[in-house]
Sequence to fold (346 residues):
Amino acid sequence: MAAAVYFSEKFSEDAISRLFERAMADTAGRIGTGDRVAVKVHFGEEGNTRFVSPANLRPLLSCLAKRNADPFLTDANALYRGRRHNATDHLEIARKHGFCALGVPVLIADGERGEEESVIPIAGRIFRKVRIARRIAEARALVVVSHFKGHILFGFGGAIKNLGMGCGSRAGKLEMHSTLKPSVGEGCTHCGRCVEVCPADAILLGEDRAAIDPAKCEGCASCIAACEFDAVEIPWMALASSAVMERTAEYALGAVGGKPCVCVTFVNNITKDCDCMADSELIGRDVGVVASVDPVACEQAAFDLVRERHGNVDIFRKATRVDGTHILGYAESIGLGGRDYELTRL
Fold:
């Protein structure tokens, strides 16, 4: 059966409210009084202004308040170095970008250095269990607010990437970039903290820096969390895009975990790169907002609407040379959702 997807070309508070109300109705009352709702957002990296505006979250929060739900805004720490690398700096960038003025708690889902996680069993082809940021895993329901834009590895990123990569703990993010093993760079101070926390005894202190044995490394990311000097490095481009997409789709499956989930995707300010970077070039025209309880259908509709708006051209593949639709097919094949949908224009 085709999933219901709602679409509005307008970005007004009234339009967003009506869109969200329609999608919320499809949860059949599964989000209500006292339910702890994780509103998964991206707070934007330093120098980025294209993330979903806090003003666009007000209609969603108002709708949840009417249902007496208990929402909080959240994101998990990034694996890369930046202002979102630890909870203290992450919360500060959230405050700077206006998210702390919305009247609801703002929580970093996986703790100060990305170490707080819950292990969730899934029926995946690659994983049998995934590591999800604890506060997201423990929430009763999810509202996933995404910015649809380009990405160097995914081609494009929206609800599925936000659920998978965005909800994974630091160890989970490393696992999604699988076969990548960290190494120690020049920033090492020889403190030995990474040696102390490594559960695989894969790290030894050399004469001037620590060294990680890739054969022993389990990819748990404990060393990354423990290093206060950002000396642990990740070889980002060592894995094919398709493999990262598949792992991320399986993490998205674990993040949802059978709980009610409403996806709201803003298709505007379409950039070549993701919001984890400073503003990059705009590659497309504004389209509107889509919402659905089906993450795959929501993503497929966003992609189709962008193509339609740009003369049936895949602007993401043109900009990144990556076929982002691979994640849609894989996500459908593992039961995250379906690519068929019925679009209702509001």
Notes: The chain has a mean pLDDT of 92. The domain at 183-233 is CATH 3.30.70.20 (Alpha-Beta Plaits). The two ends are 21 Å apart (CA to CA). The chain has two domains: 3-176+240-345, 183-233.
